[in-house]
Design a protein that fits this description.
Chain lengths: ~350, ~250
């Protein structure tokens, strides 16, 4: 397998990951800061004989994705926060119908129209629901341009493996910034049989894709089936990275681009002799609670850093379950925390042997 | 309401391979059942049953897949043409049609229908105009006639308060991507035969790769018109088809 070393922005790397994963259908509606991805897909879908549609809205895009997924191909849509809100109805239907797809959210500042600066304000929407009904999405949090490519490929595999939508939760920073990355010139996309796909009933019984279950108890049964699936995913698809946690007094928990900044803050803190570590969740759902629980045995304090008013911190607190103190530092509305800022906050945390 | 069917009817339905010989849930005198049958007959006649992928709406026909004997997917309310677009684009050799009520197509799904039509998607749309929201209890639809009583226009549709009945077909016909537009009705055997020809033609357009085709079918909803089936059929002739004239609006 030959490899190319190139310079790309995160949005484009995500698109290239989709192409490598065998994505054959993309629909999207322009919104900053993810426009490079839509443009990239318009070019690459043409080159790879896939389908690109600039839809009339995000609502339509997600429903086009529903149709193309029902027809059995690998599909993707992308947007940024306000557009992702519009997709929620469709995401609920895709989840109910167990249709695989990849959805990319390059988060921007909110609420409302907000701004186009990076944000992590859509964490709750991504991991707690967002649309109606009891469902979960696998949520992947890239932290580099290389991750944008690699995790997109992973997302397509997970979507097919579990027959469900997978969300890539990036932000404007990751989408816009350019970094060198390695692109495999070709990969063999994993193949999953789709004995449910609508292809026309030639030589077989007709198939139906639906989420309406009216028979007595049928919907509860279906929900139980979905929950069983989510339980398995919670057991086997939890990913995170830990840095310097073994001897750490203070452990920072941060995801996505903030994890990168927090890592720099950790390095600065270590240089000052402070025992600081970092846990970076890669899957936001399923959340790496075990890793955090284990870290509780040694750490005296957790510090959660987010570009939000404090969303993931709730999951950290659930995992820590009162055993140690969990502190929070956040910026909102497009504010990006600097490493010095985080360091200052670490230094201000008294009583942790600091 | 489940209607018991006699054996003769069951046998007749069984002769249409695309239609399952099962009891359906539509009310007595409802147009949906007739329209289902016409679609299935056309599909059988072209021998395309094993290529068809249908998109069922949210509305009284939400469980059309219980009656149709080919691949069917559900779509969220009004998103039907977007779902059909996704299917047809990745499977251009399949025959894809949507079946939509007037709430689905002309209210909540207006953006989706206009843009699927404007892109010239090579799909067929069967648009059932019964002038009300049947499934949710007979509320006003965009197509409800002026003065018509519904559960949300109890004094009759007021043009001032509720706006005008929407002639969506005439709007769609001006779009260059739209190749075939006809309005038919199913209130008499004569009209049913014409409806059959229109539906067949709409599928033929798709088979020949001509582009977007749509047939609006004026359909009876005796239940929410507060009428007997016969009165409802007469109302189509005397009122509905006067405002929504029957015939070919566009054919290229
Ligand atoms: C997003 C959403 N809004 C509202 C509804 C409720 N709803 C179901 S069917 C329907 C209208 C159906 O009317 P129509 O499309 O005319 O079909 P009919 O039942 O008359 O055949 C509505 C409003 C829904 N299912 N989803
Ligand atoms: S409510 Fe109206 S449209 Fe619905 S099944 Fe009954 S008659 Fe038909």
């Amino acid at each position: 397998m030959s490899k190319n070393r190139v310079l790309m922005c995160g949005n484009e790397a995500c698109g290239e990951g989709a192409v490598l994963a065998g994505c054959k259908f993309y629909a999207g509606y322009p919104i900053t800061p993810q426009n490079e991805l839509t443009s990239y897909m318009s070019k690459r879908m043409n080159e790879t004989l896939g389908v690109f549609i600039q839809s009339e809205s995000e609502t339509s895009a997600i429903n086009m994705v529903f149709g193309a997924s029902a027809a059995g191909v690998r599909v993707m849509t992308s947007s940024s926060s306000p557009g992702i809100s519009l997709k929620q109805e469709g995401i609920s239907y895709l989840s109910a119908c167990e249709l695989p797809c990849v959805i990319v959210n390059m988060q921007r500042g909110g609420p409302g129209l907000g701004n186009i600066a990076p944000s992590q304000g859509d964490y709750f929407q991504s991991v707690k629901g967002g649309g109606h009904g009891d469902y979960k999405l696998i949520v992947l949090a890239p932290a580099s341009v290389q991750d944008m490519l690699d995790l997109t490929i992973t997302a397509f595999d997970l979507a097919d493996k579990y027959r469900m939508p997978v969300l890539i939760l990036g932000d404007g920073l990751l989408g816009q910034m350019m970094e060198p990355l390695t692109i495999p010139s070709e990969i063999e996309p994993k193949h999953y049989d789709k004995p449910w796909a609508l292809t026309g009933c030639k030589g077989r019984e007709p198939r139906v894709i639906k989420s309406l279950l009216l028979a007595d108890g049928a919907l509860e049964e279906h929900n139980k089936h979905l929950q069983e699936k989510f339980k398995i995913i919670k057991e086997v698809e939890v990913y995170s990275q830990s840095f310097n946690t073994k001897d750490a007094d203070i452990i920072i928990v941060a995801y996505g681009s903030v994890a990168r900044i927090a890592k720099a803050a950790m390095t600065l803190a270590r240089a000052k002799g402070l025992k600081v570590g970092l846990i970076r969740p890669i899957t936001l759902w399923p959340f790496p609670d075990k890793v955090i629980q284990e870290a509780c045995a040694r750490a005296k304090k957790f510090l959660v850093v987010e570009m939000s008013a404090g969303q993931m911190v709730e999951d950290v607190r659930l995992a820590v379950n009162g055993k140690v103190e969990v502190d929070f530092y956040g910026r909102m509305g497009g504010g990006v925390p600097g490493e010095g800022e985080i360091l200052k906050h670490i230094e201000s945390l008294g009583g942790a042997g600091v | 309401m489940i209607q018991k069917k006699d054996t003769a009817l069951k046998n007749a339905e069984a002769s249409v391979k695309s239609l399952r010989a099962v009891e359906h849930h539509y009310c007595a005198g409802c147009g949906h059942g007739i329209i289902h049958r016409l679609i299935c007959e056309a599909i059988d006649e072209y021998g395309i049953r094993d290529r068809v992928i249908a998109v069922a709406p949210v509305g009284c026909a939400v469980i059309a897949y219980e009656y149709w004997n080919f691949d069917v997917t559900e779509a969220a309310h009004g998103r039907t043409p977007a779902v059909a677009t996704g299917i047809k684009r990745v499977r251009p050799n399949n025959i894809v049609f949507t079946y939509q009520g007037d709430g689905d197509l002309a209210a909540i799904g207006t953006a989706e229908i206009i843009h699927a039509a404007n892109r010239g998607e090579n799909i067929t749309v069967i648009f059932v105009n019964n002038g009300v929201y049947g499934m949710t209890g007979g509320q006003m639809a965009p197509t409800t006639l002026a003065g018509q009583k519904t559960s949300t226009t109890m004094e009759g549709r007021s043009l001032r308060r509720d706006g005008y009945p929407l002639k969506i077909l005439e709007m769609l016909a001006v779009l260059p991507g739209v190749k075939y537009v006809e309005r038919v009705a199913v209130n008499s055997s004569h009209e049913v035969l014409r409806a059959k020809r229109a539906i067949s033609k709409a599928f033929k357009m798709q088979i020949d790769g001509k582009g977007f085709s749509i047939v609006e079918v004026l359909s009876m909803c005796p239940t929410y018109w507060g009428m007997t089936p016969i009165q409802a059929s007469d109302r189509i002739k005397n009122d509905v088809a006067i405002f929504y004239p029957l015939g070919v609006i566009k054919s290229c």
